[in-house]
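Let's practice the habit of predicting before peeking. Look at the sequence and jot down your guess about where helices and strands might fall. Then scroll down.
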Amino acid sequence: MYGSQSSFVMYDEEFKRIKVVIEKLLRESNSKVIFLVDKNGQLIAATGATEHLDTTSLASLTAGNIAATGGLAKLIGEKEFSILFHEGEKDNLHISIVAGRVILVVIFDNRSSLGLVRLRVKKGSDELAQIFQDLGKKAEEMEKGGFQSPFAEITDDDIDNLFS
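Done guessing? Here is the structure:
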């Protein structure tokens, strides 16, 4: 299973780049919904027909699915299964791990095909991996530059005093 991943800060510039990539993937794969989730189950971004979906539950269940199949992979001597596919009567799920740290979920129906989705996901995953690599570099630069969270100096005592 996956160890806890260190969380990362999402900057507006990278978030916009992510949205462009997943919106393009939605169009080019002829899918219904695409969402990106971190391995802790937090929704990062979503696009498509999400209005009738509980994206919060989908995000956490997807992360759980990845963790469970990671356990299965280890039992048979694999590091992980980087791509999962679930076929339903009407809708299908294509789930893939991007850059070893986020989960890309594509929901599609019979207007598309698994082959088309896999082809487009490969290209989109490469673009997303680059964005997350850039995010990592930016975070390192911020750390080296002495950037500190505005909450870093708040202690447990400060919080207790606030609520007592």
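How did you do? Residues 43 and 67 are 16 Å apart (CA to CA).
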